[in-house]
Design a protein that fits this description.
5 helices, binds zinc ion
Length: 136
């Protein structure tokens, strides 16, 4: 289903995120595909298209997240909320070690797991960007 989001809203969301995916922090200038404006809470779960529910997301993060709000924490096996960039601060749930994104909380770990933030090709891309000092 295609949800209409106005051009000014899309621009606002992109500017607010400084052009970076709000999950993996890759800048859209260094991404093969354009970043997308996505609903943190999907319309089907009652989310709105107001900018306070919109997130700038790279294509892989958006595809892996889909409309999900939770997944299973890989450590404690509990159903756990995903990171919502509108509700939480990135640095409270994640940190970067080398090219890895490390989860600091159950929310961080669960989001890394579901969005496959450390899959090998994403690590390779981040490593190349880090060497050029353009990540994060
Ligand atoms: Zn991303």
């Amino acid at each position: 289903m295609t949800i209409y989001i106005s051009l000014p809203s899309r621009q606002f969301v992109s500017d607010r995120a400084s052009g970076k995916c709000e999950y993996c922090l890759i800048h859209q200038d260094f991404s093969i595909y354009s970043h997308e404006v996505d609903h943190a809470v999907a319309i089907k779960h009652g989310g709105s298209s107001n900018t306070n529910n919109l997130v700038l997301s790279c294509l892989p993060c958006n595809r892996y997240k889909g409309s999900d709000l939770t997944s299973i924490d890989p450590i404690n096996r509990e159903i756990t909320s995903l990171f919502n960039p509108r509700s939480y601060k990135w640095g409270d749930h994640f940190k970067i070690e080398g090219s890895y994104i490390v989860g600091l909380t159950d929310i961080g770990r669960t989001t890394i797991f579901l969005l496959k933030l450390n899959e090998p090709k994403r690590l390779m891309i981040r490593q190349a960007l880090i060497l050029q000092k353009i990540y994060p």
